[in-house]
Amino acid sequence: MDMLNVYKEAYQALKSILFKSDIQELTTIKNRFSKMEKLKEDSYLLAGVRLFNRDCNKGGKGIEDIPVLLTQAIDLTSDELQDTLSYVMANVNILTSALDQSFVPATRGPRLVLDLRISSMVNPADVEYAKDLLVLFRQYEVYVRKMQVEVERLEEEAQDVFDDFQWCLIEIHQCVQYKTAVPASAV
What we know:
Distance between the termini: 29 Å
Helix content: over 70%
Number of helices: 5
Function: Essential for sperm motility and is involved in the regulation of the beating frequency of motile cilia on the epithelial cells of the respiratory tract. Required for the establishment of radial spokes in sperm flagella.
Shape: rod-shaped
Number of domains: 2
CATH topology of the largest domain: Helix Hairpins
Family: Belongs to the CFAP206 family.
Subcellular location: Cytoplasm, Cytoskeleton, Cilium axoneme
Keywords: Cell projection, Cilium, Cilium biogenesis/degradation, Coiled coil, Cytoplasm, Cytoskeleton
Strand order of the largest sheet: 1-2
Order of helices and strands: HHHHEEH
Structural class: mainly alpha
Strand content: 5-15%
Largest sheet: 2 strands, antiparallel
CATH architecture of the largest domain: Orthogonal Bundle
Number of strands: 2
GO cellular component, one term: ciliary basal body
Radius of gyration: 31 Å
């Protein structure tokens, strides 16, 4: 991307929203807060003009396609979370099967309990370790599933923002369709 072209385009967009009198007025503002607010407003207008030009395929050099980038990031994150969940669930299944064979249901009075029945080759400490590991993987599973829900929520929220942005661009296109100049207050 040629930064010189980006600067030239930004300069042309700036000239389309500010006259020399506007720039002179900006230099006469004494209140720092008011000057910052005016600069902020002008930078929003400049960004809007550049985004509009990008939408019309008449400029917008150097502006990344945020919807595409965000969609790619969400897809990659979702895939990574699904791979992680598959790994976690494989471990949960292995540990559950191993522990399932180590315990036998038994009744003691009115209660149902699990008795540890292991071969002489298995250390009871290893069974405890496997139980702790199973708990860890189950917690990991809950965490990953919560992250998946959050990513889905963010995807919906991002889509809403993109839809609002498209709606704004449509409104601006309708506003400027037959006009050679549009006051900043109309945008």
